[in-house]
Amino acid sequence: MTLSFILLGTLAGGVLSVLLAAMLSLTTLARVAHVLLSFAVGTMLAVALLDIVPEVSQTMPPQTLGGWLLGGLFLFFTLEKLAYWHHEHGGDEGAEHVHDDHAHHHHPAGGMVVLGDALHNFVDGVVIAAAFMQNTTLGVGTTFAVFVHEIPHEMGAFMVLLHSGYSRCRALALNVLSGSAAVLGGVLAYFLLTATRPLIPYALALSAASFIYIAMADLVPELHKHRRPQDIVAQLALGLLGVAVIAGMMLVVHES
Hints:
- By secondary structure, the protein is an all-alpha fold.
- It has eight helices and no strands.
- About 5% of the residues have low confidence.
């Protein structure tokens, strides 16, 4: 019975939240995806710095946490450089296709946000499983917390994928795939909770590093391309709105 609750909880927190975010992001909001990049920046930085980092700091020394964040930033910098190198050399099709206007390439930020999101969702699955293994009431409350927390975050992820050149269907499929990592994390935790628990802070630290890197290295430079006064005001407003949404979700969860 506990495993059934874990499966339902991780499906709700990891997959149902993605589908609900898709109803908003891939329909009404898709037409203004380029404008909502600043909202994605706000949500990603808030998740990383207001939620993940404080949580990890409770179980990891500050120097160790800082080292993992720093190492994660350099890791994602290296991965992005390799992705650019692959695109510029035409991948498996040869260097003669580097400047082919008909070739369809995706911005590396899209793949990196899926990877970071998958790590985050995997850890969410472990947390949900641990809560249900404690008691059902705690498991339901944790699942709700993950669900409401993930919706604005997944909306930000959709904005990044759409901006990176992915189609709506592709963005949905990738986000469902990354959301499914919660189910994997929950099932593995059910059978191997003692072994997987020590790895949670490190996975969270890498997840936070990925969100910080994508927001500052990939999305903010895109925002700087729009320099009109009204663009600056809109970017600041939407960025702060993203932070406020995440902070509000955290406040509701903690009070409940």
